[in-house]
Batch of 4 targets.
Target 1
Amino acid sequence: MSQKHLKEAFISNLNGTSLLEISLGLSLPPLCLLCRGLLLILYHLRYGKPLSSRKYSLLLDFLVLVSPLLFSCTVLSPIMFFMPTIIAAFCAGIFSKIYSQRKHETRVPFRQIVKDFQKAYLDPEYIPAITVFRVYVNVLTSIGILAVDFPQYPRRYAKAETYGTGVMDLGVGAFIFGNALVCPEVRQKSCVTQPKFSNLARQFFSIWPLIFLGFGRLLSVKSMEYHEHTSEYGVHWNFFFTLAFVRLAASLLLAIFPKNKSWIVAINLAVLYQLILNTTFLKTFILHGSDGRDTRVGFLNANREGLLSLFGYLAIYMASVQAGLWLLKCRNSVKGWIEAARFLLLTVLVLFVFLHVSQAYADPVSRRMANLSYCVWVVAHCLTFFICFVVTDLALVFTKLLVKGSSVPCCWNVVKPPNTGTKRETEAVPVRREGKLSHVCLISAINKNQLLFFLLANVMTGTVNILIDTIHSKTAFTLCILHLYMFFNCLIMYILHAKNIVLKFW
């Protein structure tokens, strides 16, 4: 068997893992973010100033925000169920140290600190959880696309063949969800009136880099005889095409239907698509082709998974648009965000109940078809992931109140309360921006060039696979390669961010 066929067999015919393990895995990035924030606050408490060295800041961010994720999906995967507890205990230890070492003059009763925290106002112009969510989806995807080719990456985390919930199955849907959270329709202020199809025209011109990248990937894969998992998207289709066409189709729907009714469009799309799958020949066609023997003759047969799964991904996108609109409502207080987190948690519980019903009576989760269960699962886990980041940010806001003057990049700033004497009494007034702190933050660096980061990860993954026999790699070598790969990608983003360079071609 050739090397190409060996690698294809290595990532094929898999069944995924449990929902519980994926949920526990999703708690790691927020805990890592909390750990990094607490360490920075402790540094400020000890030295009386923030960490200003770009070199040490990059090292800290990589070691705390990225490295634990690399270990957790390789050598530490057997103890995945204990990882969140271990990191949470470490965070609790740092918080205890901060609380006990506060300066004498700032020591106020704990009850008073809680009251101050509940009354605190936050910068209404910035929701860090959205930025961090999108960046971490990108980081986790970049780790997964290379790590899956090494034997140390558990097969249960890879994409399931037909039915199942693998970590990488969630990554695809989460990428769509994260894109929709900041789409033009969400960011457009309700008071601004624009022609109905203006966003559609803008999207038509903005998706050309994705189309270009799609064709670039197609030509490179075919010309180099690179291994590919045909049942993911088909013979010619790939994720860049999916992302481009979903964005275009969503803009068309949002030009026709009111954007605040996106959730209704999402439900109708997902349910109707599932009904067609269950009552017609469509499911058999996706899984086995028009002849029932997995034929790939003709464009539709060759790319049936990629083309028909667009309906499911479009439903996820529309659901995310609704979530984005709701999240961007003016909330400028800690109390407001605690209430928002409660509402999101209730929504997640309802979605998981619906997921159970959908899997029992409609169809199990299938990324290959992007069916109803898959859509519900992706939205439920993405909202869970987002809630974790909101809670993390609130915990860091509370800790910052303990140490006067402390700051954490990509975290809420406490601002002055709104002036009740003015007409705009619902708005809080920012005290100050983080200034130079944003220039020494890995999350901000990746956020500025997200598409480039994803593209660079894909190119590096291909390069590593061409140069190295990944299937037979030893553990130490695998960890070394994965860390070098991620550090190189992060370093490029960090340098571009330090020089204030944004590579955007549209």
Target 2
Amino acid sequence: MSGQDTEDFGAENVSEKSRMIPSLPPYDMDDQLLPREPRSAWCCLAWTLVVVTMNSLVFLINLLLMFVIFTVVLLPTIVVVYFGFQCHSRVLHSAARYCKSVLDDNSSSALIILGFVIMSPLIVVAMAIYCSLARRLRLFMCFQPYSRAVYKGVKWRWYEEGGLCSCAKGCNTQVKAWV
């Protein structure tokens, strides 16, 4: 009897564990991990070049957007530090009229210090603006996976969302997450 009790206990224990770890259903039929047909070598190479080119263009657009935002936001710091260094007698010592009449060495030093002090909060503001804009435009969704080049039938990420980088479609409030 004790042997039969241990066998029943082991079977019951296994069934409880299997109930605790359910398998997650797929989000939809396109997301299932079905075996995909691989491309030929030349086709794979051509698609790899397309994907790499597209990802490089998206990276350059992100970099250009970041450069423009940081330049506009940090412009006050750039101007203040520039005038501070231009009018200081030990650095550039410009012969401009405003350097002789308005700015002496002490005020030039104050401008340099002020420029570097306001730089830190302005960098944080610039990064917040860039991240907010990149999230709103969904720029990071434009990067394509390498599997797009290797297998046939992999859809473009932006195609299902309603346009290039989902800019044409409003923000999707429906969240698909398994908890």
Target 3
Amino acid sequence: MCPTGKELPVLGARSFPEEADTGELPNEAGSCWRVRDPPSSAWMGMGRPARSRSPGQLENSSLFLQAFLLLLLCRHVSSQCKILRCNSEYVAATLHLHGPGRGAAFCTALRSYSLCTRRTARTCRGDLAFHSAVHGIEDLMIQNNCSKEGPTALPRPRPPAPNPQGFESLDICDYERSFLYKHGRPPGFQHCAAFGDPHIRTFHDDFHTCRVEGSWPLLDNDYLFVQATSSPVAKGSNATVTSKLTIIFKNMKECIDQKVYQAELDNVPAAFQDGSVNGGMRPGGSSLVIWERSPGRHVEIRADYIGTTIAVRQAGRQLSFSIRAAEEVARAFTEEQDLQLCVGGCPHSQRMSRSPRERGRVPAETARALCREMLPVEDVYFQSCVFDVVTSGDTNFTMAAHGALEDARLFLPDAEKLHIFQAGGGCPLISPSFLLFLLPCGLWAVLLHF
């Protein structure tokens, strides 16, 4: 059994790792992420998932019946019995009904469900799905104090045919086009990256060098889960590098099946774990695709249905991760999903200075010369490059920092934020103009004191 740990989103049956069959996913640090239910997959609702409820509450009966009905939809029944249509209409009518205020609408849906079963009763005699539905309706109406007399919901109208000159139904799986149609402007984007030691550039353009070892979440929101596994860069070193990446694209019923991508050192595949290269057989399956940019070294995953692009690279003995995510997607998480390196950066106890204080495997001046060939601007990417080469002795780390900078050049919405200048300890450098401002303030404070 794993100790208590963070939570992972529930995985689909076709892609769930074997270690997680018990509901827990162990990581290399000996801790584990505990599986939790995913949020509703309704398109870009950005809502918070409902709180779990005790077994004694009445709502469980409704949820159980909905799950049972969804299973029944997969059964083969005779063409005469229309119970599957009744089931699907009930599920659609109650899918978004939650909480104590659902009473009247829920009872209306149950009465409509009951009316539908009565209309098809003659052709459904002996059908298990039909009789199970009838008994389930009776129990739910008693539990929710629903009267058998009252209004029923009108049949759902057929959706209008797509307008060739307007917004078509399949465009719901094109986030940028959908956002522009709804808001009249393009969406905003944010960038995060993890490379080298690892060095983390957050969505808010903070930059940290971390000593994190084991498995840590880079992202954990309603649409994506990204976990990085780190190991020491060299024996006895406090520095670590990313040796494994796991990316979960959570199920979205209108667009994609849940997909899991996993990369390890010397194994950067151009396919998801199930062997596919797109989002599956759903109408919007092509809105999630993998492109191989350099065989075994660089892949790009485009998730157009959430306006997100991810790059995974291997340089030397480390993996790097870069993402361009829609602001709406990057912010779609709850208070419980509080540990995300792309959002909050490294925990304070795990941050390191990028100024090597110990004798490294490569002299600092040699490392600086090597890094300057790839990174002429001495920003945080240059500092990270020098730190990694000195610490590891591996000159391939110059490619890791260069690749991260190139991804930032492509993914950052504001080109002026490409270069970040910090002191080696990770604190922003103070500008000369700010120092000139502080000087008279300090003198004034001294005069007041005396």
Target 4
Amino acid sequence: MDLLSRKATCNSHGQDSSYFLGWEEYEKNPYDVVRNRHGIIQMGLAENQLCFDILESWLIQNPDAASFKRDGQSIFRELALFQDYHGLSSFKNALADFMSENRQNRVSFDSNNLVLTAGATSANETLMFCLANPGDAFLLPTPYYPGFDRDLKWRTGVEIVPIHCSSSNGFRITKLALEEAYEQAKKLNLDVKGILITNPSNPLGTTTTQTELNILFEFISKNKNIHLVSDEIYSGTAFSSSEFISVMEILKNNNLQNTDVFNRVHIVYSLSKDLGLPGFRVGAIYSNDKDVISAATKMSSFGLVSSQTQYLLSSLLSDRKFTKNYLKENQSRLKKRQRMLVTGLEAIGIGCLKSNAGLFCWVDMRHLLSSKTFEAEMDLWKKIVYQVKLNISPGSSCHCEEPGWFRVCFANMSEETLKLALKRLKKFVDNGILPRSCQVGESQSLKSSSKKTTMTTVSNWVFRLSFHYRDAEER
């Protein structure tokens, strides 16, 4: 008899992806401007640290919110007691209003259609539990966020079938690619229950176009049993709000409110990227389907947002003067930082996909590969991690079909650190290899990491459908 369950011992979590392995190497040797100047600079983490000063200023000016007071009186005991899993109405109302403001109030959100979750990870998984059964499939355009292999599949048993997108058109979704993915799922005897997109895209840093959204809505209108999930956690990072189009706007502008499509479109949102608060673990599902809301609300009891967090953020998001200023300044700072990375890379001879949102750039290093293979991509990635001392995410970890693309984050560090990262990369490109003084510890790191079969076979892992590798009992 096995001591642990099949779920506990299966290898479908995705932790062996180079996306997570890069984090592990960073944590062994993190860069610090004072304590470890030759450490690895973390450019594989999509955090928004550019507006902490604005948030901290608000907290100083509003001490009651942070100290759990209302009108000067402590409400600590009220917040410390058991909370209903529906969440605080004051926070849900404030969050719904913030989501509308984030979209320039072109659409409105009903707080009754919101389900609070412990971050977007929980929101996405909960939606999978609500919309699909184990062995059913969701279609995802590539490249996509590596964590989806964990978030959408690991515990739910849902399969991911890629919609293969190409650099030839800027990795845009096409009708042909969508139809081919659907047909591929049918060949694998998978029942397609939905499509999931990130808008703006992680890792591309681009907003989904009107044309792409029209293709998606046309597809789900034709296929009556298919849902569309739009992960819009980066909506507030679009450099210009007018360039971001929410699926809610398509529903409104195409007068789909009273059609069957209306209940099959769902949104995932969180405050991790727009407000830079991933540690607060605040996510949400928005759906017009009352049955989805009811089921998701019950499931949310496994990952609630604390009452203290809800109270603090309800006060912050209800301050319209603050939110208006924050959204504007956040967009401005992100755009400036993105230009700093793009121009710095251009000076080195490295290009990027043209982007207009997000906390990262999709960087084209195909010309630096020794061959047009994923093995060559992994070789280059190892050199960048261990020699250049930068943790970036290889395209293969994002299921990109073309070797040589990398996701590089820019909003989780100071300008000085970004300049240092560019300086290191320039030296590597100019010389082909860094001076030995900058390679301290590389041999030890390579020795311990390359012995792991995951380091050498990761390019195979990222392209497999877990359906073919799962034990029969796990399907």
